[in-house]
Amino acid sequence: MRNSFVKALYEIAKNDKNVFLVSGDMGYSVFETFQHDFPTKFINVGVAEANMTGIAAGLALSGKIAFTYSIVPFVTMRCFEQVRDDVCYQNANVKLVGSGGGLVYGSLGPTHHSIEDISIMRSLPNMVVICPGDPIETDLATKAAYKHPGPVYIRLGRGGDPIVHKIKPDFVIGKSILVIDGDDLVIISTGNTLDLAKIVCLNLNKKGISVGLISMHTVKPIDKDAIIKFAEKVKAIFTIEEHSVIGGLGTAVAEILAEYEKQVVFRRIGLPDSFCKYIGSHKYLREKSGLGLQDVESYIIKTFTDIK
Amino acid sequence: MEEHLKEHAKNIRKKIIEMVTKAKSSHAGTALSIVEILTVLYFKILKIDPKSPHDPNRDRFILSKGHGCTGLYAVLAERGFFPPTLLSEFYLDGGKLFGHSTLGTAPGIEASTGSLGHGLSLGLGMAIAAKIDKSDHRIFVLMSDGECDEGSVWEAIMAAGHYKMGNVIAIVDYNKIQSFGFVKDVMDLEPFSDKWRSFGWAVKEVDGHNTEELLDALSNVPFEKNKPSVVIAHTIKGRGISFMENQLDWHYKSPDSVQYNQALKELDQK
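YS: structure for the whole thing
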């Protein structure tokens, strides 16, 4: 996703002199071409995220569009008050781009994991929260964020994320993408669990359960219409995300369903409310945290069987 | 002091006292300590036109110490950015002016401040934009001394020095009193000038209530080519009202009717 982001931003910057990439000393092996070709548009502020965010807001107040970039915790939480006051309060045209959403940074540990960022960013007035599901969505999200006049947070996965979309989908901020239609169940995914959710979906369809898949790339504003549409027709709705079950996609969908007149079975699949205790690769940590393929598949089948 | 500046400063102080009394709000002392700085900036230094507050080539002024907003509101009214009647909309139920300066609430306000340690980074972003646009406007950022406890301030100081931002001018209202005590006791800033210098800034120290000194310093920025400039302005918290001067209390209290009358009387006698 990182490469898709910078490739999209390169195209944007080529055609718009007002676009800036402001980095907190991040981007090794990713931003070199951008830096070389647009030396005045690439600002490395050093390891100083509060200043990075303030500078970006100052650029925006002067009519520029600034993309800030670092690892998720550093671009969102380290400089949270700058994000709140300088960016959101002033409705500044700043886009926060975080790499390594969820457990991507594996053995580097919880300081580099991000299990709370969607929740935190979602609570900010004026903030749009986008978690692209694959490199294609990342490209489209970057371009959509550029066109959106105001704060956007883009939560990326890592390098080498699998491509899920076979054809380029329509991408509109606040409108989800229906990847697979289904009548029995629906899985709503955000961010880098899209690939996992699709495999689960296809496996269950093979087992005779009609399971739909929605890519809810925009967690805020959430696509209420899509949620309600499926609440009307399926027996159960599942959300899946590489984020704490508190405050993220699951919570956002629950907020819609709780206030909807029709009851539907609803389950959140995500990370537990704890710092990761395990050491290991991204894949390993997912499995230890209940986001392994088998665990997710079994949980959905059991829930569906219990309904019947 | 040039007579007209003296008159403006007096008017601004009166407006501050009227606002904080009517609104029963705090931060009178911190607004009174920056009156001469604001007067010199708005009447002598800033390339601004109240009739064109959005001119892209205007100088920018950011009140990073947003709690001194009554000073900013008063000087903007005095300079003609909006009618003085707007000042009666400060702080009260249904009013139009917040207790910290806020973008979009009145013409001439360049940024939303209130939380300390934000303004210099915002100004730095604006300064980078000015350089890119090849505009020669300057960015002035007025900070408090207590604000310089914030780590983010030093991130911005380091970056402005590194980027050699000659179009950035910081002014520190060094009134020596912060929220809960004297600066030297709470978190000593000294050797303050040396700290800025070592981060690549050109420094001048002035009496922040002496308009000639302020004018001389601010008319000659950047102090050194390709270096950001900082004016460390030695000021007195609560300046101009005898019972408010150097008193921590006036970071919090608002005048009662007796104090209000006395304050205005003192200002009229000057």
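YS: worth flagging: The interface with chain A takes residues 56, 103, 110-112, 114-115, 117-118, 120-130, 132-133, 151-152, 155-156, 158-159, 162 of chain B (CB under 8 Å).
IM: good catch. Also The radius of gyration of chain B is 17 Å.
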